[in-house]
Structure formats: C-alpha cells, structure tokens
Design brief:
This protein has 10 helices and no strands. The radius of gyration is 18 Å and the shape is elongated. The mean pLDDT is 96.
Length: 190
C-alpha cells in the first residue's frame, strides 16, 4: 500500500512536471492515487482527480481533462472552492459552452457563499473571451461581498487583499474591455 498523500504531495507532483510527457505521467499517477485511496490520505479522490485534470490540461489534452473533472464531480467530496468550478472551466476549454453555462447556472442557483467561486467562474469566462458572462459573474460576486454586514454595502470597506476587492477590480477591468462607461462601483476600484 502506498503512503498517505497530503496537499503538499499533490503540489510537488504538479510542480515537478515540466514537459507534456511529465504532465501526462503526473496525471496518470494522480488518477491512480484517486482510484486507490489510502485511508489516511489528507486529500480525497475528487481533489486528486481535479489535480490530474490540471495536469492533462497542461499537456494539451482538453477532452481528457474534462473527463477527469466529470469523474471528480461524480466522486463527491469537497474541492475548494467548489468542484463544479473546475468542471465549468474544463467544459469551456473543451469548447462545450452550452454545458458550461448549464453548470454555471447550477452553481448560481446554489448561491455560493465562498466568493472564490464567483472569481473562478468569472475568470474562466474571461480567459475564453466571454466578457459578458465574466462581467455577470464578477458582478454577482461583488454584490455577494457587499451583502456582508461588515461592509455596510460600501465597497470602500472591503479589505485591500480580500476576494471582494479582487472581484471589484476584475469587474472594472472587464467593464473597460467591454467599453462600458464607469459606474459608481468602478469608481471604488480605480
């Protein structure tokens, strides 16, 4: 039986891979670890499958990465910030925009409290040049951040390195790219 795996072990495997062949090898190793979990693993099968998916993505295998993300969702378990954001990203990378939108809608309907979920989905849309959807997700996340009683709805009250502030900066950037006129929220992040 193999040794139990930690978050650091997964990171080390990922960082060690430099070439497509090494990424493929790392993906195979991570997938095998997910399929034969150790009872003392610090990470669950879903997290191992997401890490394997990342490695396939780095190797240029979008369909393989997508298959592993689907397997991660099916495996259950928590993968921060939400396993579905990785599936969403893999769907977009594989050119499956309609399926990605369905996953995004499922995420939206669940009303996630973790602001990183909104960032992940927004950034996935941004890197695939769907700026309208990126704007929507960054706005949803910023609105969620501003519902925190500590902010009183005031963007100036968001901590400088907070996820809420990063959502505001990303939203402002995308609004510029969309040639939208600045609004009152943009003024807080410029």
């Amino acid at each position: 039986m193999r040794q139990p795996l930690t978050e650091d072990d997964i990171e080390a495997v990922g960082w060690a891979a430099r070439t497509p062949a090494e990424h493929l090898s790392a993906a195979a190793w991570l997938q095998a670890a997910a399929e034969a979990p150790h009872p003392e693993d610090e990470v669950g099968p879903a997290e191992l499958l997401v890490a394997a998916s990342d490695q396939l993505s780095f190797a240029g295998d979008a369909p393989g990465a997508l298959a592993l993300c689907r397997a991660a969702v099916a495996a259950g378990g928590h993968v921060p910030p939400d396993v579905r954001v990785f599936l969403h990203h893999a769907l977009l990378a594989a050119g499956e925009g309609e399926q990605a939108r369905a996953v995004a809608e499922d995420i939206r309907r669940s009303r996630p409290e973790d602001l990183a979920v909104y960032s992940f989905v927004g950034e996935s849309y941004e890197v695939t040049d769907d700026l309208a959807q990126a704007h929507r997700w960054f706005t949803l996340g910023l609105q969620r951040a501003l519902t925190d009683p500590a902010t009183g709805g005031d963007p100036a009250e968001l901590a400088p390195s907070s996820e809420g502030r990063m959502l505001g900066v990303a939203r402002t950037r995308v609004r510029r790219d969309l040639d939208m006129p600045p609004d009152e929220l943009d003024d807080a992040f410029t």
